[in-house]
Amino acid sequence: xxxxxxxxxxxxxxxxxxxxxxxxxxxxxxxxxxxxxxxxxxxxxxxxxxxxxxxxxxxxxxxxxxxxxxxxxxxxxxxxxxxxxxxxxxxxxxxxxxxxxxxxxxxxxxxxxxxxxxxxxxxxxxxxxxxxxxxxxxxxxxxxxxxxxxxxxxxxxxxxxxxxxxxxxxxxxxxxxxxxxxxxxxxxxx
Length: 190
Fold this sequence. Notes:
The chain has twelve helices and two strands. The chain is mostly helical and 190 residues long. The longest helix is centred in the last third of the chain and has 15 residues. The two termini are 16 Å apart.
């Protein structure tokens, strides 16, 4: 572990363990992976550096994820709106996607990732974007307008408990709680 691990202060490591669902080893690995995304001259100050979204998206764990851009948007605390990540943003992301994260935490972040317009509800447009992300953007995999409309109608019928035409967080969490494989599939492992 030598080089990069020794640059993460011991008190910070303990604090990160308390504030995340990650083990000491996972935090040290995350620090190493985060540092490697920085230019060599910035690696000594990895705790205070920001990694551009374009570099975050080079991680194999995110490269093939159809929600990669939304994941960066949701976990980035950048004031510039550039979706860059600090080390703490990176840890928050890994913590939410870890096996140890609670179902409530996982479903909360999944909801935020799927809420493309960030309005606190999954409406028809969010659901259409969600389906398109899952089925791919190619012509051969894209659903017809009628198929999309039927699927969205079915999703809302099943999930929209208060029948307001949208899915709020508690409705989403209710649906997810009945899906036993959700928590095991909502993960990123470094």
